[in-house]
Amino acid sequence: MLLLPRALEVCAHFGEHQPEESAPFAASSSRWPPALVHKVLVVPSGVTGPMAQENNDMSTNQETTNAVTAADVPQQAPLMTPQAVVEQLRAMRAQIGEVTPLTPEQRRQLRNHGQTSNPILQASINVIDAVGVVAQAVGQPAEEMRQLVDESNRWTAVEDELRMMLSGIAGANLIRRQRLTLVAGRAFNIGTQLARDPAYAVLVPHVLEIKRLKSFKRRKKAAPAPSTPQSPAPGTPHAAEPRTEQPGTAQQ
Fold it and tell me: What is the dihedral of CA 82, 86, 91, 97, to 10 degrees?
């Protein structure tokens, strides 16, 4: 038995069966049933419905996920200018309280007198804490001594951090100076070669000025320091000058 093809379009329907219509290529006949065609329902973009609501929810969830992901990424803090660093350091120094500049000699003397180790300090504090007469004699309670030791140890960590930061800043600045020196040397060499060409005569005064500054710097380095005569130490007898006798004089 020969079967005629049916229309194979996939339809979207909402619970109701659409009216059956015969296909264009199937002739009406009482012998063979006509092919069924389901109409396709196209939902416009502006029409709301369960499917449209689901698409909107998925889009909103995707946008929310992207926003949260962007917020989780840490933003790089802007770099500080040298002037801003100086202002921050001055403000921090004003908040520290105890900042005491010392001369090299004062620093040396205090360092020599402050070489007591932590075990000895702890044992001495125990002596103060054992008898009240010792605390009265030294004028410092044991609890204040322990607090002073703790503060000293904590400020040592601050010294290390500041020392490392200063070393890093000084190293970075040395690299900048080296880079400037290399570029300046190349500029002088190229300018000296181009100044020989009349087409680049504008470079002549600049090259001459650099040569003058370099020669002045060399002369300043070569100048020896003036030597000061050493005065004799007090109590040192002066050398006796030789005595000359006048002609015609003789000892009697």
Answer: 140
Contacts of 80 (CB under 8 A, 6+ apart): 88
- The number of C-alpha atoms within 13 Å of 36 and in the hemisphere containing its C-beta is 8
Amino acid, single-letter form, for residue 60: T
Helices 142-194 and 118-130: angle between axes, nearest 10 degrees: 150
Lowest mean pLDDT among 23-32, 112-121, 158-167: 23-32
250: left (phi over 0), alpha (psi -120 to 50) or beta: beta
Whether the Cβ atoms of residue 149 and residue 120 lie closer than 8 Å to each other = no
Determine the Cα angle at 159 with ends 125 and 115, to 5°. 40
| 237 pLDDT above the threshold of 90 | no
Which of 114-123, 133-142, 243-252 comes out lowest in average pLDDT?
A: 243-252
Cα separation values, 102 from 17, 56, 121, 122, Å: 99, 71, 24, 27
- Whole-number pLDDT of residue 252: 43
